[in-house]
Specification:
The protein is α/β, with parallel strands linked by helices. It folds into two domains: about 5-115 and about 355-365, Enolase-like, N-terminal domain (Enolase-like, domain 1), CATH 3.30.390; about 120-345, TIM Barrel (Alpha-Beta Barrel), CATH 3.20.20. The protein contains 13 helices and 15 strands. It has helices at about 50-55, 60-75, 80-90, 95-115, 120, 140-155, 170-180, 200-210, 225-235, 250-255, 270-285, 300-310, 355-365, and strands spanning about 5-10, 15-20, 25-30, 30-40, 45-50, 130-135, 160, 185-190, 215, 240, 260-265, 290, 320, 340, 340-345. The strands form three sheets. Strands 6, 7, 8, 9, 10, 11, 12, 13, 14 and 15 form a ten-stranded mixed beta sheet that branches. It has a three-stranded antiparallel beta sheet with strand order 1-4-5. The protein is globular and about 60 Å long. The model has no long low-confidence stretch (mean pLDDT about 100). The structure holds [(2S)-5-oxo-2,5-dihydrofuran-2-yl]acetic acid and magnesium ion. Magnesium ion binds near residues 191, 217, 218 and 264.
Length: about 375
């Protein structure tokens, strides 16, 4: 089976509530749906969420890099030739979200061709994943209300709190308030998206430790080399690399040089193939991993679910799978369902997502 066509379809769906965090804000899902068609007519899909403030990619750049550079070099290659496909794409540096969408759409084609779910092809470890919800910047009382509503409506008891503002007291108050309001059993962890300096992050440590925060993601820029390493040494909380570690090489470099002690894996950057390499690397080194969220739609979330539920190591901490709930609509015909704090894997061929063509026609940008 060969790759016969690759389409890039830009679309825009608004959020009911924008997600705000230290490095940016998302009010509209202005993503690219990537569609790969094989020589015998199988169609695979993936979602590419541009995150300019994190990786420098935009809706327009994702479309151009795929249409101008990747497509011409990939059409005619076999869908199983993953090493060749990545060799071709890696002639262009960066663009990990565009590369990830190509990889996931091809995996969707592989699963549909074989009549198997990607979840089972990747390892098939668990039939469900525990869900964690990401809480953006807001007033402390509103953040607590959102967390309580998520627990009440979906049974979610794991929350990632966005921090990294100045003055930091506001963020720290949220952590303390959430712990008091949700009780000891809730898993609370934070992500500063590089908003603080290493010194500011160090000053936040005692409060975070007292609030029982389980992990501290991108406290400061990883390029703040010495300060970050000092922080890692001082912290009793694992320091998680996210945007500093999109590739296996960066994972190795940050872990071995003491820039972080745990890794957030995101299928949206680099796809299943890259995520598998990073997971294997982390397992080999005995490093904690978690499934992160690239502020994904249901299409992206289904990919994170398929990957995360396939492996034991990625089921150990709740996965960030719920932020699609903040969108006004989605493109899927078979919506995901969060019940008792978990999402079940659907054992459909491919990634498990069916696209609603009428919604795509409505939301696509022409
Ligand atoms: C996260 O974990 O950082 C915010 C920016 C981005 O690229 O992903 C999100 C969530
Ligand atoms: Mg993060």
């Amino acid at each position: 089976m060969k790759i016969a066509a690759i389409e890039t379809i830009p679309y825009a769906i608004g959020y009911q509530k924008p997600l705000k965090f230290a490095s940016g804000e998302v009010a509209v899902a202005d993503h690219v749906l990537v569609k790969v068609t094989t020589s015998d007519g199988v169609v695979g899909y993936a979602d590419a969420p541009p995150r300019p403030y994190t990786y420098g990619e935009t809706q327009a750049s994702i479309i151009s890099v795929i249409n101008e550079l990747f497509s011409p070099a990939l059409i005619g290659r076999g869908i199983l030739d993953s090493e060749q496909i990545f060799q071709v794409m890696n002639r262009t540096i960066g663009n990990d979200v565009a590369k990830g969408a190509i990889d996931i759409a091809i995996w969707d084609c592989i699963g549909k061709t074989l009549g198997q779910s990607v979840h089972s092809l990747l390892g098939g470890y668990s039939q469900s994943l525990e869900v964690s919800h990401m809480l953006g910047f807001d007033d402390p009382a509103k953040v607590l209300d959102e967390a309580l509503a998520m627990r009440e409506n979906y049974g979610i008891s794991s929350f990632k709190i966005k921090v990294g503002r100045r003055p930091r007291e506001l963020d720290l108050e949220i952590c303390t308030k959430l712990r008091a309001g949700l009780g000891q059993e809730a898993d609370l962890y934070v992500d500063a998206n590089r908003g603080w300096s290493a010194t500011e992050a160090m000053a936040a440590l005692p409060i975070l430790e007292a609030a029982g925060i389980s992990t501290f993601e991108e406290p400061c820029d990883a390029k703040e080399y010495l300060g970050r390493r000092e922080l890692v040494k001082k912290s009793s909380i694992p320091i998680v690399g996210d945007e500093s570690v999109p590739t296996p090489g960066q994972v190795t470099s940050e872990l071995l040089s003491g820039g972080c002690t745990a890794i957030s894996i995101k299928t949206a950057r680099g796809g299943f193939s890259n995520a598998t390499k990073i997971l294997n690397l982390c397992q080999g080194m005995g490093v904690q991993v978690m499934i992160g969220n690239q502020i994904d739609t249901q299409i992206g979330t289904a990919a994170s679910l398929a990957f995360g539920a396939s492996h034991l190591a990625t089921t150990r901490k709740a996965a960030e799978l719920s932020n699609y709930l903040d969108l006004k609509d989605d493109l899927v015909a078979n919506p995901l369902e969060i019940k008792n704090g978990h999402i079940e894997v659907r054992n459909l061929p491919g990634v498990g997502v069916e696209i609603d063509q009428s919604k795509l026609d409505f939301y696509r940008i022409r």
